[in-house]
Amino acid sequence: MRSLPEADPGVPDIRSPLRYLWWNAGRQAPSLLLGIGFAVLWWLVQALMPAVLGQGIQAVTAKDTPSLVTWSAVLFGLGLIQAFSGIMRHRMAVYNWLAAAYRTVQLTSRQAARLGATLPKRLSTGEVVSVGNSDIAHIGNSIDILLRGTGAVVAIVTVTVILISTSLPLGLLVLVGVPIMAAAVAPLLRPLHRRQRHQRELTGELSTRAADIVAGLRVLRGVGGEQVFSRRYRDESQDVRGAGVRVAGVESVLEGAQIVLPGLLIALVTGIGASFAVAGDIPTGQLVAFYLYAVFLIGPMRTLTEAADKLTKGHVAAGRVIRILSLEPEVTGGTGSSAGGVLRDSYSGVTLQPGWLSAVAAAAPGDAIAIADRLGRYADGDVTFGSAELRTLPIDEVRSRILVADNDARLFNGRLRDELDVRGQATDEDIHRALRAACATDIVDALPDGLDTEVAEAGREFSGGQQQRLRLARALITDPEVLILVEPTSAVDAHSEARIAERLAAARAGRTTLICTTSPLVLDRAEHVIYVEEGRVLAEGTHRQLLDGSPAYAATVTRGED
Known about the structure:
The chain is of the alpha/beta class. Helices cover about 65% and strands about 10% of the residues.
């Protein structure tokens, strides 16, 4: 059994949707060609069966028992080959579908991790969700249909050759009739894809609306807006339903045409063949064979229509995928190196000394966030790390050495132990030490299986304060060279906040740490406090020194209270 997906999906060709599909097919060329081989064999065996049945009927008519036995054995053998080739064709079809679809999942997941904060700025949540929900399936279908589509073409050509060699008028009728039917169905594909595209856009917008409602549910309930947004969601969902009905209308016409048009061809071929049989131009066995060929052709002709539909959908889906794959991160790294040391943001003047527990208190919370983003290389800025400019370091190195932990971080589903120890290198002692520093030991103790408890998506079973403490523990377990915490205690009570402030200093002893906060309990534990106003450093010192020497700082951290 082969493992899917591949360890390395490779570097895709994103110059155009067609090139991406071609590259995807090329990555699995051996399995694709093998599948096409089985599909061709599967269709060919079915194409030969009417001729064998015709020969058998002629043997019955002529009362030729040896010939009847021979053709019966041939038919039995063809049946065995069809069964084997059908099983293998389906097996290879599933494999190729999975390989193509999940290679796309790997690429988009890798790109999402590479883009980081850039992705939600460039694409809506619904757009990204739609790629994962539908586009990967269309790409898988476009690769899968190549197997049956190629076999169908070979089968139609084979039947046409047989009919022409037996009866030139009937062969020419099939040869001309198949393209005419394909041309008759083709005009339905464009409105179908247009309506499908519109439905997908509405579905993406609805997914975005749902994500926004879930994310802001507490706020909506607090301001009484839950019913308003619920009504909007209901109206938009009806628009999606209406779009789906319109898509189904075109699909039903297409499905009907795929039955009616081949049926007309069958009737025509059978009628002309019957007139030839009555006139004695062809024997009865050949008449039966012609009828069976006409019935058989429904399959490959419908497959060709299906192929046109799926390849078109795959082309459109590939266009949306390469839109994601072609995005570039807002910030990129270089190839430089740094031995570490002082981390300094020249714009604001904030300087972090190695091994110190520092704090930034900003008059405007957005200024502190902007400083954290520049120091963590999530935004461009004139930042130096030791003797090197931060922008010259490889982005992977920056992410491994400097960790910015803010309240936009999320808990994912899975074992709590794996969620906290994201690198898989921490011991139980390391984890418990971090949990204690974050005052999160009680959270784990209350869980039925402790650290082995399965966490629901986004940590829904935990309160806001519990999630914040667990995220802090995760950051401490990572133990980066530089840790930047943005309001790490904003959702916890004063008693827990005081204990976290006291334990945090001990947990990060000898490591560079910056806390962006205006909490007096936390600021009082910092070795060095930096007060920022209008994006610039206005005062520095200890918390108590700044309380006495900087009225603006005192007003910010005490909220104007005496």
